[in-house]
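Schema walk-through. Below, the input block comes first and the output block second. Nothing else is stored per chain. Lengths vary across the set, and this one has 339 residues.
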Amino acid sequence: MSVSITEVTYGADQVGLISGFRFLPGQAGQPIASEEAVHFLQQPAQDDGFVWLHFNLAHAACERWLRARMPLPDDFFAMLHAGSSSTRIEPSDGMLLAVINDVALGFGVVTSDVATLWVAAGSRLLVTARVRPLRSVDRLRAAVKSGEVFPSARSLLFHLMQDQADVMAGIVRESARKVDHIEDRFLAEHLQDHRAELSGMRRTLVRMQRLLAPEPGALFRLLNRPPAWLAEHDVQALRESTEEFSLVLNDLASLVERIKLLQEELAAKLNEQTNRTLFTLTMVTVLALPINIVAGFFGMNVGGVPLANHPHGFWVLVLLVASFTFLAGWWAFSRQKPR
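--- output ---
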């Protein structure tokens, strides 16, 4: 497979099924095993029920079992082997196939890493497959376990996309809160070097923006020419999800630009502070130059040192050094005045 196996999620069955649910009209989802799902799909469609199967692609037997037992088009497996993880959604053989990039969910650790989810949604089947745990899928599974009712497999897919938008909106809000805190401290002249934090935040947001930006375009292309088997209410739900996700991406782009401007202002302020410090050190060096020169000359152990026997020689030298120091300071500060 082209997907890199980086983590192994415990709890999957012998074919890599992490969770499975069967949905009957007007009822909440009930857990179902992999073989029970195969038996359900092989039966004639006597009702409007469907199943949702969520798989772990890191399991060695997962793809082989999907090819052998699930009625999935070849385009779905072609997407698994495609090197690009660019977001897209397209119809194929009466199903909706999607590649969705979402935020990864660590084991008890909040992360902003982006991972990929492969989706196939038909009239009686929704298959989702991933390598790393995802936040939006975890939210969807929690909604199903809480008893939320879904009328169709595609409505479950659109709810997943809505959860994806909600997760992204939460990340944007949390990042904006951190940027607000840094900006408030900057305006209050409490300068700290937040450049590393801002750089890491901006790098993460730009990566998310790059991976997620194609999604609204792919959804709008599907909405412009929806397949005939896609119901009107499904099209409307997909349009609402697309519009909300577009707003989130706009907020993300605005936040990236705001972080960039804050980085530039912070760098300029720190450079100004550094220049003032260097100027102060330069002034100290310039003002100390006359006394160092005079002390060097009068500290030579040679004959003929002037004023050696003069009764007021010390005060004459003090006046001489003070005069040179005053002239050096006047010359240095006068060059700093705007011309």
